[in-house]
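Structure tokens please, single chain.
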Amino acid sequence: MYAIYEKAANHCVDTPTGTYVASVPTFVNAYLGQAADNAAEAGEEYTYPTAADYLDCTLKEIDGTNYYIQLGCSDYDSEALAVNIYSDAQCTVHSTIDGYDDSNLAVDFTITFDYCIPCVTWYDKNDDAIDDQYYTNHQMYAPLCSAMWEYKQTCDTTCQKMGAPIGSREGWNKADKVLLSILSLFGFGMLLAIIKKRTKMSNKDALLEQAAITSVGLQQSHVLGIFALLILIITIFGLLGLKKITWALLLILNIVLFAYLMKLTLDSSVKETVVGPDGKIMEIDDDSDEDEDDDNDPTSPVTEMRPGEYKNPTLADKAIV
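Here you go.
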């Protein structure tokens, strides 16, 4: 897989003309041809490596058995080449020996991957007579770029994902899945705790909470819908392997759930208090209104008065003279 860039001065940092694929023998043949052309322009001799003999499908006997071999991709490294073993004369059906289709033949040259390779290398041989057409003429006939343009096959999104480094396309690894499970279970546990505490919420607190939600133009059903939509979005991003945004949304959701759970916990632990006539602090429960009604009811049984309280006697309390 390779990309072709139009503006050589930018050194392959601008937008490429396109991303393409070509067979390994085709690419290597053009690559070595470019190396030989550069050497000739520099006035040097170029010796083709031995592995260039395997650019074509070649018959070879291995361990007493006839196989066909040709230069291709390595089984061990996604950015390395190897001489592959095939069972047919067209080198289309891979054959394996001890579970691998790579032969023990060494590849005596290297191709640097993820590296910007210029189509034309400038060699200024004579400062007094610079050929202004040198770059233009050589750009048209540069062995590497001209061959890659002629034999290119478009590489779509799926193709580019297959050609990406293994580390960038493996998705969620084992450590990611463990942490993802822990955060999901933690959030689910907090959600169950919130539901349990809400069932024990007093009517007064429920009305106050509903009033707060209504004040911002929302209803309780809207809040539940937003929560469900957020979970759906996190799930979709997780399935697509978008790690960063999945982590961010999941952490935000857990923080919101934790904050709301702490609020419910504090609200349930704090009771309303008043100062009595004797200066003592007394707690008022939710059923204090009912108790007050009972105190004012003349038919209710007489209750013990608290210190500092005074109660008008009823007819039943007066002595008959």
